[in-house]
Predict the structure.
Amino acid sequence: MAIRTATAYREGLRDGRRVVYQGKQVDDVTAFGEFTTAIAHSGLAYEIAERHPELAIADDGDGPYTAFYKVPRTAEDIVARGRLIETVSRMGAGTIVLKEVGSDALFALLRALSGQGHDNAVEFYRHCCANDVALAVAQTDVKGDRSLPPHRQADPDLYVRVVDEDADSITVSGAKVHTSFSANADELIVLPTRAMGHDDADWAVSFAIPMDTPGLTLYVSPYLHGEPNGFEHPISSRHKLLESLTVFDNVRVPKARVFLNRQPELAGPLALAFVDYHRFTAVNYKLPVLDLLVGAAIEMAQANGIASAGHVKTKLTELITYAETVRGFADLAALRSISGGNDVQLPDPLAVNMAKYHFAHGFHAATATLIDLAGGLVATGPGGDDWADPQTRRVLAKYFAAAAPAEERLRLIHLIGDICTGQWGGYQSVLATHAEGSLEAEKLQISRAFDPTRARAAVAQVLREAATSDQRDAVGV
Ligand SMILES: Cc1cc2nc3c(=O)[nH]c(=O)nc-3n(C[C@H](O)[C@H](O)[C@H](O)COP(=O)(O)OP(=O)(O)OC[C@H]3O[C@@H](n4cnc5c(N)ncnc54)[C@H](O)[C@@H]3O)c2cc1C
């Protein structure tokens, strides 16, 4: 068992991984300026062990290991996991940090599989705990024509598939996309992204590989590139993720690292097993974002001198209701958690999908409220270099003072801009809609998870009682 430091994590990223950024090969991700913020941000997943050991370190008798990888066995474990995810996200100003997604995938493998695949998952899980491994997860395939299953795509590589197999290994090709942390994690877990039929057997594959495995290339998105300053971008200048198009070109995977090999009947269950943990992670790492939304709205209303206006009170109340409803559902998902098979506890699928759906559905309206309260300076305000210049600052301090001094007000306005508009706000907007599954995927899970028995029984009871009373009336009782 091991607890690594953030420095050891960072040093571990120096290997032979193939990373391409804006058309150029990156030889050492730790020395590449554009990645510095993201790697420092992900290092918080290691720093939390020093800052909050009571939350972040587990010990089941074999020595300390990261609590992110503690397999939940009870509702209390799920509650503790929620607090851990919320705390590390708060350290990252509401941005998911690193180990959450990998542990969601580990729990899914342990829960959904059986036989050799399960045995391999157990061994891999032990390896991750023993070495405090940083994991990325590639589930979402590029998917091509969304109306077609994998075997009917024009190009068979639009979903990752098995192209060869021998006694010791499988060979895979194809591509996944949107893979967060891939450039700055140690290893990659690959999961199927959807349910599959008999004809999709070659695409029903799950495995784990180190990031420097030959044939694996990460094409990292340049979204949020550049060097934003802290005055204009209080969050995104310090916290950031890297996502990649993740291409597998005849990648050889040892059989000991294969969890699913041409078993289409398990593709859907494994995909869904991941999703329910992943949405629980999502709603808990988003709680600090919701606190920022509510807090910024309150502070902004005061700084602009509008806090006592009727429409502002109504808007603040709506924001609070939205944020606290998500928090309530997140808590409920933990409290109502169920046994998910193989002695692994599962957050309640109904509550967790309602939490994620409610968050995603309401996010854009919430940001619109913040923009409304902040005013147009979100788009037209002065920048960090203006404020740094003493002469310009005197003008800005005079003309941008309101119910609060200009600096306080401008910093708040830029915080709101960072969350709601510009590159980071755009990222948050897409993140809310698609990450951890689209709105439609959540609705589908809600309708699957809802047990209609009680609702239908209520109708049956009312109709039965009404019919009985009709009969009584008819016979004049
Ligand atoms: C910031 C960010 C980080 C992410 N990180 C990861 C990660 O680390 N690992 C990972 O694996 N994934 C990751 N994702 C991927 C995320 O799970 C997907 O974006 C999400 O599942 C939606 O898939 P998509 O982007 O391919 O969009 P699409 O699936 O193309 O969705 C676009 C629209 O098409 C609809 N649609 C799709 N298929 C059908 C169909 N068959 N019939 C009818 N309608 C359909 C959807 O409902 C939606 O309205 C990340 C995404 C984002 C935005």
Remarks:
- The longest helix spans residues 264-304.
- The domain at 6-267 is CATH 2.40.110.10 (Butyryl-CoA Dehydrogenase, subunit A; domain 2).
